[in-house]
C-alpha cells in the first residue's frame, strides 16, 4: 500500500500572505476532489481560520506560533518543525509548500521555492539573506524535487544553486477561488495590495502618485496590506494632505471579504515591485476586470502577458504615465478586453496546478 503524502503547510498563518494563499488554495483543491485521505496535512492553529469550512479532523494541527504571524520567532519555529516533520515521517514523501519549510533531512522532500529575492536584493532583505545563502543551499542539495512558480524564478534558482538533484519544475499558480467576479461599475480607485517592503517599491509608488495628483490626476489610491505608520516619516509628511483629502487610503491588513470588495470596486491595480517570484496580485486584478499597470521586471511580464501597462519601477515618470493610462482607459468596461482576461487566466488555475504537482510527486521513484 502506498504511503500517504505529507503536506507541510506551515506557510499558512492567520494573517494572509501570498504564500499563505497558495497553501490554502492547494488544500481547498485537495478537499474539492475528495482525496484528502491520501494526505497527512500539517498546519498551525492560526491557519484553521482560513480552513474552517473544511473537516478540521483531517489536519495535523501544531502550535500557532509556527507561523509567519510571529515574525522571526515564527519563522525559526517553522524551520525547526519542518526538520522534525521529515524525520517523524521518514519514508513518506513530504511536500513543503514554501522555501521556509525546507528541511536538511529532505531526501524524500518536494519543495516549492517561490523566489530567491533575498539573494537578488540582499541589502533590502538582510534577515533572510543568510538563510537563503547557506541553509537553503544545503537543504536544496538534499531535496528530491524543486518546484517554482515562473520561468524567471527557475532561471534565478538555477543561477544561485548548483548541484540540484533534478531540474527545477515550473508550475504556474492559479487565481484564488474568491477572485473571479466582475461588476459593471468601478470606482475611480487604483488598488495596491501586498505588504510593505523595500522590494515592493511602495515608497516609489507613493512619490509617483503624489506627482500624478500634482499634474491633475483624478484617481485615488487604496492600499490593502500597508498601514500609514509603516511609511517613512519624511514621506508621511508629504502625504498628509492627500490622506486628509481622502485621495489615499491605508487599510492595513484586511479580511478576504474586504479584499475581494476592494478588487471589485477598483478601476485599476498597480504592482510597482523591483522583484517578484510570480506576481499573484496581477492575476487577481485581471480576474476582477481591473486595468493593470505593473513593473516590467522579474516574473511580472510573464504573468501579466499582453494585458498590462508596463513601466520601469525605477522611473517615476514612467510610473506616473502608467497611472494616467489607467485613468483614461475604459478597458474594464470593454467586453473584448474582459474576454481576453478570461482567455489569459486559463493558463493559471489551481486544478491544473495541483494535477501537475501530484503527477510529478506520485510518479517520482525514490
In short:
This protein is α/β, with parallel strands linked by helices and 366 residues long. It has 13 helices and 13 strands.
Topology of helices and strands:
Elements: E1 5-8, H1 18-33, E2 39-44, E3 59-62, H2 71-88, E4 94-96, E5 109-112, H3 117-120, H4 126-140, E6 145-148, H5 151-160, E7 169-170, E8 187-193, H6 202-214, E9 220-224, H7 233-244, E10 248-250, H8 256-265, E11 266-271, H9 280-287, E12 291-295, H10 300-304, E13 309-311, H11 316-328, H12 335-345, H13 350-363
Parallel strand pairs: 1-2, 1-4, 2-3, 4-5, 5-6, 6-7, 8-9, 8-11, 9-10, 11-12, 12-13
Describe this structure in words.
The protein folds into two domains: about 5-175 and about 350-365, 3-Layer(aba) Sandwich (Rossmann fold), CATH 3.40.50; about 185-345, Rossmann fold. Helices cover about 40% and strands about 15% of the residues. The protein has helices at about 20-35, 70-90, 115-120, 125-140, 150-160, 200-215, 235-245, 255-265, 280-285, 300-305, 315-330, 335-345, 350-365, and strands spanning about 5-10, 40-45, 60, 95, 110, 145-150, 170, 185-195, 220-225, 250, 265-270, 290-295, 310. The strands form two sheets. Strands 3-2-1-4-5-6-7 form a seven-stranded parallel sheet, with helices on both faces. A six-stranded parallel sheet has the order 10-9-8-11-12-13, with helices on both faces. Helix 6 (about 200-215) crosses helix 7. About 45% of the residues are buried.
Amino acid at each position: 500500500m502506498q504511503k500517504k503524502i505529507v503536506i507541510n503547510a506551515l506557510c499558512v498563518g492567520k494573517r494572509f500572505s501570498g504564500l499563505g494563499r497558495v497553501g490554502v488554495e492547494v488544500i481547498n483543491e485537495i478537499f474539492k476532489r475528495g482525496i484528502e485521505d491520501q494526505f497527512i496535512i500539517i498546519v498551525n492553529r492560526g491557519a484553521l481560520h482560513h480552513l474552517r469550512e473544511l473537516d478540521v479532523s483531517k489536519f495535523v494541527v501544531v502550535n500557532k506560533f509556527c507561523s509567519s504571524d510571529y515574525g522571526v520567532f515564527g519563522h525559526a519555529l517553522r524551520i525547526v518543525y519542518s526538520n522534525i516533520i521529515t524525520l517523524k515521517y521518514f519514508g513518506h514523501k513530504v511536500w513543503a509548500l514554501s522555501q521556509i519549510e525546507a528541511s536538511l533531512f529532505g531526501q524524500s522532500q518536494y519543495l516549492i521555492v517561490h523566489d530567491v529575492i533575498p539573494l537578488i536584493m540582499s541589502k533590502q532583505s538582510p534577515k533572510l539573506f543568510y538563510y537563503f545563502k547557506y541553509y537553503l543551499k544545503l537543504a536544496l542539495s538534499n531535496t528530491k524535487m524543486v518546484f517554482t512558480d515562473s520561468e524567471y524564478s527557475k532561471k534565478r534558482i538555477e543561477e544561485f544553486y548548483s548541484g540540484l538533484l533534478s531540474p527545477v519544475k515550473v508550475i504556474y499558480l492559479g487565481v484564488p477561488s474568491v477572485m473571479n467576479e466582475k461588476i459593471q461599475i468601478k470606482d475611480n480607485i487604483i488598488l495596491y495590495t501586498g505588504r510593505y517592503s523595500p522590494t515592493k517599491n511602495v515608497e516609489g509608488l507613493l512619490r509617483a502618485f503624489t506627482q500624478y495628483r500634482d499634474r491633475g490626476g483624478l484617481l485615488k489610491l487604496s492600499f490593502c496590506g500597508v498601514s500609514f505608520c509603516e511609511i517613512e516619516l519624511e514621506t508621511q509628511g508629504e502625504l498628509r494632505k492627500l490622506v486628509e483629502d481622502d485621495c489615499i487610503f491605508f487599510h492595513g491588513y484586511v479580511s478576504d471579504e474586504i479584499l475581494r470588495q476592494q478588487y471589485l470596486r477598483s478601476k485599476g491595480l498597480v504592482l510597482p515591485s523591483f522583484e517578484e517570484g510570480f506576481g499573484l496580485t496581477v492575476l487577481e486584478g485581471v480576474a476582477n476586470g481591473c486595468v493593470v499597470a505593473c513593473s516590467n521586471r522579474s516574473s511580472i511580464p510573464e504573468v501579466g502577458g499582453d494585458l498590462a501597462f508596463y513601466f520601469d519601477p525605477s522611473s517615476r515618470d514612467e510610473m506616473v504615465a502608467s497611472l494616467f493610462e489607467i485613468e483614461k482607459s475604459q478597458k474594464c468596461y470593454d467586453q473584448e478586453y474582459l474576454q481576453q482576461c478570461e482567455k489569459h487566466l486559463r493558463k493559471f488555475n489551481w486544478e491544473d496546478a495541483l494535477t501537475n504537482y501530484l503527477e510529478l510527486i506520485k510518479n517520482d521513484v525514490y
